[in-house]
Amino acid sequence: MAIARVRIAGNINRSTAAVYQSIFEHVRTSHKFKAVTIEISSGGGDATSSQILFESVKALNREKPVYSLISGVGASGAYWVATASRKIYAMSTSLVGSIGIISINPNITGLLEKLGIEMNVYKIGKYKDLLSLFSSEAPEEGIRNFRESLNDVFAVFRETVAQQRNISEEEMETIATGEVFSSKKALSLRLIDKIGGYQEMLDDMKENEKVQGNVRQIQPRRSFISRFIGGMIYEFLSQIQ
């Protein structure tokens, strides 16, 4: 029997969510693994992908104990994923939290005017170009509706954290501000369970969950193109040495 070790790093998007979802499902259904440790070093990503991974880890945690370690940064969607674990650990130098939603939409109409470029936008639907790069003036009503949509997504994130971490709505008012916290502060806010490293987390898991086994690293499989290019580079370097 073994304990799976999975590392989530970088931006969380639809592609990475699909990869890790497959990994978690494999670990969940495999008789080889008795427990799972997840190392997180990510500033988050898009909300839907983060929720997909949260649900995947939650399903896994119902059948096998999952402990997460935030090493570096575990913020926004990445922290959302971590809350599906039974226990969350963080290194003493880690940053935790950033419970909030952000949408950044650049507008380049001013630049185009300086370049003498005119964009003709043809649309059907009053707010179809609301987030367009070329929309000179967004209707106030459309902006208000979009903000309401962001608030709805934020409410799901916030309520999930409150439920998973057993934090009251009153406490969430001071926590869900979009800011990141030091591990020490995160511990006092109950966003994490303990400050420590991987080995300490692993030892605690074995004792608390009564599981044993060697740790087996599970890494996302690189795409065919990535492996093909990597092989070509290796062959080239071998010939010039």
Entry keywords:
241 residues, alpha/beta, 8 strands
Architecture overview:
The protein is of the alpha/beta class. It has two domains: 2-98 and 179-240, 2-enoyl-CoA Hydratase, Chain A, domain 1, CATH 3.90.226.10; 103-160, no CATH class. It contains nine helices and eight strands. It has helices spanning 14-29, 47-63, 77-82, 109-115, 140-164, 169-175, 183-188, 198-209, 224-240; strands spanning 2-9, 33-42, 66-75, 87-90, 95-97, 180-182, 194-195, 214-218. Strands 1, 2, 3, 4, 5, 6, 7 and 8 form an eight-stranded mixed β-sheet that branches. Helix 1 packs parallel to helix 2. The longest helix is centred in the middle third of the chain and has 25 residues, at 140-164. The protein is elongated and about 65 Å long. 28% of the residues are buried. Residues 222-241 have low confidence and may be disordered.
Give the N-terminus to C-terminus distance in angstroms.
42 Å
The CATH superfamily of the largest domain is: 2-enoyl-CoA Hydratase, Chain A, domain 1
Q: Could you give the order of the helices and strands?
A: EHEHEHEEHHHEHEHEH
If classified by CATH, what would the architecture of the largest domain be? Alpha-Beta Complex
How many helical elements?
9
**What percentage of amino acids are in beta strands?**
15-25%
Largest sheet: 8 strands, mixed
Topology (elements, then pairings):
Layout: E1 2-9, H1 14-29, E2 33-42, H2 47-63, E3 66-75, H3 77-82, E4 87-90, E5 95-97, H4 109-115, H5 140-164, H6 169-175, E6 180-182, H7 183-188, E7 194-195, H8 198-209, E8 214-218, H9 224-240
Parallel strand pairs: 1-2, 1-8, 2-3, 3-4, 3-5, 4-7
Antiparallel strand pairs: 5-6
